[in-house]
Structures are given as C-alpha cells and as structure tokens.
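User: Please predict structures.

Assistant: First:
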Amino acid sequence: MSKYYKYDIKPKLPIQVIKGGTKLMTCGMSFKVDLYSGCEHDCCYCYAKHLVTIYSKWKKDPMKLNLKLLEQMFVDAFENNRKGQIYDLMRNRFALRAGSLTDNFQEADLKYKVGLKLLELLDKYDYPCIINTKGIIITKPDYLKLLKRLAKKQLVIVQYSLISLNEGLLKELEPGAPPPKERLKALKTLADNGIPTQIRIAPFIPWVTINCEDLIKEAKKVECKAIIVEFLRIPPKKPNEEKSTNEIIYNATKKVYGKNINLWKRYQKEGGKLHRGYMKFPFEKRLKIYLKLKELIEKEGMDFYVCNELKPDLNEKPFDCACCCGVENYKGFKNFNTASSNKIYKMLKEKGKISLNDVKKNLKSLDWNLFEKQWDKGVYEDLLYKCKKEYHQGKIIYSNL
C-alpha cells in the first residue's frame, strides 16, 4: 500500500464508470480509464488533486496501476466473455475517456509505458477513446504510430488542456506540465499525422487567463478541430492542503501581473456562490463570456463546446451535439453516455416535459440504476437552466420553464 494513499488498500480497476457526484447525469464521456495515481503536472486547480487531498497527501511522483490488470480487462471483455457491468459496456464499445483523475501520458509513461500499452489494446480491439492530456510524449514514434492507426479507424480524439499562452503564469499554476509552445507543437504534429485534436480551456479563469483571442488563433494555426471551455470552480481549502487553489492563484498573479487577484472574493463580488462544494462564477455572467468566445472560435472555423453547463444547447451548432467532445463527427464513437445534460436539455426544449421513460426509450446510459436514483432525487432541477421537477401519476418528470 502506498504511504500516501489511505484508499490504495486493494487494486482498483483502471476502467470504471464515473459514479461520483452527478457526473453520470451531465457528461457524455463518463466511462474512464486512469492508469496512474498522482500526476507530475501538479496543477493547482486539478479537481482530482483536491479530492485526493481530502483523505491524504497528493503525490507528484505518479504511481502506475497494475498493467496486467488493464490487459486482463480487455481479454475478459472480448475473449472470455466475462459477466459484469463494465465488461458489458466494453463489449458494446462504449467510448472511453483516458485521463479523468490523472494524465496517462505524462513523462513518467516513458518509463512505465502503461499509456503506450493502452494504445496497443485500443488498436487491437478497435476501441474508441478520447485522450485528455498535457503530455507531449504522444508525439514520439511508438505512440504516434498507434494514434495514426486509431485515427484511420476514427477511434481517437486527442484533447490538449491549455488554458493560456503565458508561460510564466503556467509555471506557477501547472509547475510540472510542458510549456504552452511545446503543447502547441505537439498538436501540430498530431494534426499533420491525421489525428483529430481539440483544446480544452479548462479551467477558464476570469481576470487570470486573459488574451484568449491569441490562444484561439494559435489553435487555428495548429489545425485544432474544436475548443472546449469550462469555468474554474474554486474549491475551499482542505486541512491537508499546504495552499489552496485560491492562494496559489493569488500569489501567481502577483508574480506574473504585478497584482494579487483574490478569485474567491471576486467571484463573491460578482454574485458567485458556493454550490455543491465549490465557489462558482454566476451563470448569467458565464454565459456572456461563453457567447463571446463561441463567436471568436467559430469565426476561426473551429467548433465550440461548453462542459458541464446549465445551458448545454450552446453545443448545438454546427450539429446536434450529444456530448461536449463532439464525438458524433466520428464513426467509431457509436456508443457513449447520451443520457446526459446535452440530450436531456434538447428533449426538454422540444417536448416541454419529459419522463424517465422518454429518456430510456431514446438515449443510452452507462448505468440506468444510478441514473434512475439521481433522476428521482430531482438533480436536473439543479443542473439545467430553468428546469423544474414535477410529479405526474406519482412519478417525477421534468419541465422546461
């Protein structure tokens, strides 16, 4: 057992459905594969880092998970016909999201090669996957060869997390991650090899990640297909944390911009409130910024998406988008968690009212049992704009006000 982790008592399956919070209800890509615990990028705003710190110390030196266990999961799903929820999902090739709680393609993978093994397994079993990374090692020959094979079968999208072009700022906020120029170079290399790419401005930090226009133009130059934007939710400081996210940003802005920015207080001043454990920027003001960014991004010929938002219909142009990653563009992504915010909100707008049966007839969920429990709790009243819970013949339905 790792000295850093209280929860590392027994091996966890590297492939899992994200069941915490309301992620299953909001995210189309809630089937994830994480191959490390800890991450050398050490980003101050990382939600996984914040959650781990509740229980123990965050580990900058990543610890790889069991490589044989990863291989065995694919063998059990496709060759041994093993029973179980996760194996059923795998047999139906529900798309995976690689990099939910860590970066599977951080520099450490040159030593451990579990990320490389994942690519080999995806290629062998024709399995669709979105890769979320800041790592540049995927442009190395062994990785690139496999990514090219997957791209030809339309089974992969690579998303790079890049919130700013300001190298000094990123050194403070993401001290272990590659510089922005190296990430842009990697994006261009991938595009030149026929691998579809996206950029995640996640998180977008008001007053801090400024000059997004320049980032958008650079994204266009490296032939990025889309940009996904998600606002920073500020976690409160936990007892085990040396410094909170807010404190790190406060010190970083003094060093980089010559003035301290207290985001927590600024969020509050703008009308932000604590919601589900995080301080959030007020929605109406988020929306104004989203619309401005949407215009700039689409002007450059790229698709614009928002992630985990109250108005996911921002994602409906240029096509009917059921997932903020835009996987409908790719033939290999046939199955994913469509019973989530994007499609639910679209159904509400079209029908005015929807029942659980409406959803189950038309959409796909990774876990209907959990979905039904969350549905009955009325969570969409809190997750979607102007959505109201009602009772009809003793059952919960939702209406669009």
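Second:
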Amino acid sequence: MNRPAGAQAAVLALAIASGLAAGACGSDPASSTTAGTPSTTSSLTSTAATTGADTTGSVGTTTGAGPTTSVSGTDGTTTDGTSASVTTATATQGAGGTGSSTTGTDTTGTTTAGEAPAMLSQTGLYTERAADGTLVLAEGVREFEPKYWLWSDGSDKKRYVYLPPDTQIDTSDPDHWVLPVGTKLWKSFISGDQLVETRLIERTGEGEHDFRYATYFWMAADATDATLMKYNNERLNAAGTTHDIPSGPMCERCHNGLQERALGFSALQLNHDLGGLNLATLLEEGLLTDPISLEIRIPGDDPVVQDALGYLHANCGNCHNDSPGLPDESVPPPQLLLRVLVDDLAVEDTDAYQTAVNQPTTASDELGYPWRIYGGDETQSALYFRMTRRMIEDQMPPIGTEVTHDEGLAAIQAWIQSLPPPP
C-alpha cells in the first residue's frame, strides 16, 4: 500500500511500543502462480512463486527501544544511491538474538560470526540469475515450502534451504528441530512480478543464540545480484510495490519467538506432497536423527477446523507459543498459545482450543471484547477483531502486514461459528 513514509513509520513505532506479537518474517496463506506470473488469488495452503526487482522514495528515522519510540523523517536517498523510503531503528537485541544492543543509525547487524556477506550471491544461494529471472541454485541448495503460509499482503514467496553435507537435523523434539551448524535458509519475496527481497537465516554456531539474520534488496528488475541491507533499515513500499522490507530487529521479533528460529521448516509444515523438499524426502535421505510419522497432521476431520488451526499456527503461533514465545508483560498469564504440536491428536488437545476458545482476554480490556474467542460469534471475539484491524496498535499480526487477509478471516470466522458458546 503506497502510503507516506511518515505514516508507515508511525505505525511501526506503535507496533514496537505496544509489545504485541507475530508476523514480520517467517512460515506462510499463498498466492498461486502459473508460467512465472504470480496470481492475486491467495489460499490458506501453499502453491508456488517466481521473479522480478526494485526502487522507491523518502527517508525516515525511527529511534527508540522498548516502550519509548519516536519517529522522524525527511525525503532523501539511500546509501546505495537509489531514491527510496527507508526507516532506521535502533535495536534492542543483536542480530543473533543475544540481547546485545545495536545502537546508532545505519549500522550493519552482526553476530559473533561477523558480518553477513555484502552480496546475496556470496551467501551460497545461487550461481546465476537466468534470463527468465529465475535463480540457478548452487549445489546443495533445495527449494521447499510450508503447507500453511504466513500472509504477507499478497506477496509471493520462494524458500530454499542448505543443509551441510554429512549432517542431520536433530529431531529428538519433533516440534522444535535443532538445525546443524552451517544450515542456511532463504526466503525471496515477489510483489506483482518483481523480485524485491531475499532474507537469510544462518546457523553460525552451537549456541542457542548463534543465528545470523540478513536481508538483501534487489534494486532493479534486471539485477543479477541483491545487496545487503543495513541491519536497522526498513524499506517501505520497496520498488514502488506494496511490499515493505523489514529491519533486522523486526525479523528478530518474530523469529526469536521460537528456539529453532526457522518458522516454516518443521514437521507439520513439511508433511505434504506439494513439491520441493518435504518430510518424506528428509526421512528417505536419513537427514533426521529421529523418525517422525508421516501420519501427523493438523487435527480435525473438518477442513474448516484444519484451515483455521493451520492459519493460526502459521500466522500467530510463531509468537503465541511457549518456546519461548511472548514475555508475560506482553500477554499476562494464562498465555494465548496458537501453535499446533505434533502430538495434538484431537482439536481439543491443541493449545489454540484450550487457551482461546471461550477463554477470557488478559491483555485487551481496552478493546471491549472480554473473550479471546466467543464460540458461535466472531463479532464478540477479540482474536477475530484484532485480525480485522490494520494501521493501528491493536492489529494482529502487529507488524509485517498493512492489508487484512479476506481468506484467512473467512477461515477463522467459519471455525468460530462452528464452536459452542461459553457455558
């Protein structure tokens, strides 16, 4: 949505100050594509993606940490010389999620392993960009997609993973995979027919915080490489599209909510036959330390229920979980937990059912909705109401989206209407 940069930065400031949770980067409801052209129709489960590029117009600066955040902005150009809409925010957490602060403006985020490569081609993703815009993947890089997508205002996506040779994913906890050191995951965003950005998460060491986050910007439609963004910069309406490139701290905000950091590369999300690397392939190739049944799925015999739980899992569960999830000061106990677990065999077993359905709110008194989900009536449900909000502090997800997702709302509405009311 092409809004003035100042207005977008103000919303970002509200989101940071509010301490809300979910949705800037990670797993993903989908836009289907044919012959390299993404369609505008999106679905709750995934399909595919393609290519393209970028430029924009005005500079803003966001400063602050925690509950105090201020916003200012003036027109200008970025350090790469392109006219663009960019905000710069001071971070409250280092790139590896260690709690170290990144201060000042236009600083590059680093982990203990050092700075990310300056160009995307140096990360090991691809060897060249073909004439049709597709990336020729480097040896060992494989494409994958999650069954349930994170809504990103209609942007299409491509996802890739590299697992180092002779390694396995530690799946002793099937809900929280431990990726081997050297694992890299990339996600490219395509807005319309333009390839706008590619994000990288890399496991850099054995420590729980040893992850590197980096974002690369495709500056032109015919670009053969993408340039590393300054870690604290956010590029708004990138390339004149509706797609915003988040800052590193915004990526941390979602990905650090789960100990594995990789939000859509998981047992439930990869158990499908949609193409690309999936759970069955990982099992066949001996890439998992502990076998996981191919019978696992989002519980429920009714597609209405499965679609709703899958949507909440992908769009809300990245923050609304207990591993580590949100701090108690953001959502006072009892927590609202929306991530589905492998051992959830019945709908009633899920945290979403137990902590949301006919449960009172604990952090939304000002909204006038006393129930998280009021069975049978979405109009009395705080969860549904917040999903309908955009450009205000109360929206959910709080960042990473400016447009409500009609199909996602329809899925949640249908499920709520099927539930019994509070006793």
